[in-house]
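hiii so my PI (J.) wants the whole complex modelled not just the main chain, which honestly fair. so below is everything: two entries, each one labled with what it is. i double checked the lines twice but i was tired so who knows lol
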Amino acid sequence: MVRILSPWRRHRAVALAAVTGLAAISLAACGGGGAAGNGGSATSGNIKWWGWTPEINVANNDYIKAFNKVYPNIHVTYKQLTISGWDAGLRPALASSVGPDVFDIAPGAGMQQYAQYAQDLTPAVKKALGATWKSKVAPIGIRSLSTSSGKLAAMSVGATFAGSLWINQDLFDKYHLTAPTNMAQWVNVCKTFKQNGVGCFVQGAGQTAFNQDTLQSIADEIQPGYWTKASKGQAKWTDPTMVKALTIWKQLFHNGIMEKGALGVQQYPDANNDFLSGKNAMVMMGTWYMQYSTQSGMTSAISAAGVGNPKPFNAIAIPFPDVAGTGRTGTMYGDSDYGIAVNAKSKARNAATTFVTWLTTSKAGQQEVANALNDIPALNGVQPQWDNVTLVNKSAQQSALEKLVQQTTTSSEPRLSLITSDLQQAIGVASTTVAEGQKTPEQAASALQDAADKLPNKGTTTY
Amino acid sequence: MQTDDVELVRPRPATAVSSGRRPARRGSQPWGLPWILPALALVVGLIYYCIGYTGYISTLNWNGTAPDPTHVGLANYRQIFQDPVFWDAIRHTIVFFVVTFVVQTALGVIFAVLLHSRVKFPTIYKIIVFVPVVLAPATMAPVFRQMFAADGQFNWVLHHIGLGFVAQPWLAQSSTALPVIMFITIWQWTGLTFVLYFAAMGQIDSEILEAARIDGAGNLRVLRSIIWPSVRGTTVALLMLSVIGALKTFDVPYLVSLGGPNYATEFLGTFIYRISIPQAEVGYGAALSIMLLILALGGAVVLGVRGTRQGRSG
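here's the output for the full assembly
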């Protein structure tokens, strides 16, 4: 039967179809995905790079500028996201079809979440470095950025290590103090600073992820290698080493070393700003703080800390003091700071791969990384060109930086790559409940072990 | 009767009246559905679909990105009831709601009454009280973190007025962090309470107030027996807003104290965010979101039913 619709009914039907179609299209668009074509040209195009690191000035003025000298037709736009907003921003972007072409990946929890979106970089790296490529880059970067199936999800740009304290040497000189090497000296140094109205050691214990660094340093002094074993589930968190580490951690809050109210302070921005603005003389930070040894890095960081007329000061890394009384200090632990991955959905995969391989495997790219003093380069044999780096106080800082870099070459302990976000949360809770006196070190260690037992892989990370 | 009144206001089309037949409304007037369909599609597609999808996700063990989520049935909900942090968040929400609502209401009424009296420069006072409402919490969070730090301005003031013994690291202690969060919220939202009460009091018939004065009622009696009952509708509205606000609380505790120390300022909003985003337990986070939805709906229904009953009895 043929039905003839009246003009208004026809109009209504068209309107209905249009609206329904629009709704269907808009809902279907939520699904994202889609084919990414052949990946485009490898030597031209526009690519978007998202990361929480490096700083914008380093990415634009050093890395991308140097890259464009070799590949002038690939336009890279870098967008820096905050660490706290990283997951919230990146996850939906990668799930869509319009996410970044290149993105940072952190070892550990980052790999766990984002490796699936990355293209396997093995063929590109093999092409760049040859069949023996694995011997030419830091193994820590390969191990922590590969999946269990062998996919190289990201190439490490460089590594960072924690286990050091940074001191404001100018303040130490002003009050005729030397860097502390044990607990007693540390207490005395803090006493002197406080008598002169200067904050001593600042740690943002309220942002619990960084408490892990301090606890790992203390545990390494008591029993080297224990922390890594516990992270892998091969040792109990209730071990006497951990109980003693938590006991010493608690002492730091009561003997005047830790700032009063540290549990209400966040490492970023509070503790970072307090150190850079000269309010505090010591801070628990790792090799990523090397970038503030340069005139430009320190000046912009002080300015970002809210100081109107920034005056760079002499920042020096020192080993974590021997607070356990064992004589063992100076252990550094670290991982690849970050790898950069190519989004498998990107329509400019080939240009993105060109950028990633240039920055991570070429000598020119890795030299830029070394000179920025943000990371220890992933490519073997690349050292900072000190003549091209303008330090705040070259005579005092260069030898200390060289020593710090040298220390990292002997490190075999990971920092984050074995710790899942759940385990990190549990370690953070143990640290703050002990610091506040809600739990004894024994109770906190026991609660931490309980939490670790509930984790699917007993603390080990699988991708 | 009411229908007839409406018909008088909206005249029938001339053709229908002149022909004496049933109005040909369906044929000659635009049908409404196409016009509301975009909004309907948006609401159903985005809001109800998302609620349904969140309900589905809440039955999964999923990190939000893995291609192989596992169905766990109601296990996430069972976990919620055994999770002490969830109960902490509920307890904080209740305390937060009671304290902030009572204090904001009291301050709002007091400011409104004072500014209805003959004070000098009333506009300046109104601006001072209302300004915090328009300031973004993200802007103010660092200020409050600094102010309530161990060496912050609040302790400095305490030391300088002889109350140094009260000074303490307010945000670093479980016992004092939540009161600080409540203080900030009261500071921020009292302006809105004040404006609503100020407007409601402006509607009170001045003759009633004059009659009360003639009968010998003092200020407190007028406030208790005339003003307070007259602004009851505003109080009920603020009560509902406070319940919803307490359940949605996220920005101030997240920005000022990150939900800590030791979960002392954890609310459902911060808990859901921490579980879903940094810890990537999206299934569990979705179950918590559904619990939040149930609590919000339950609160709205209870308040709505009570409001209706009291309205009838009143």
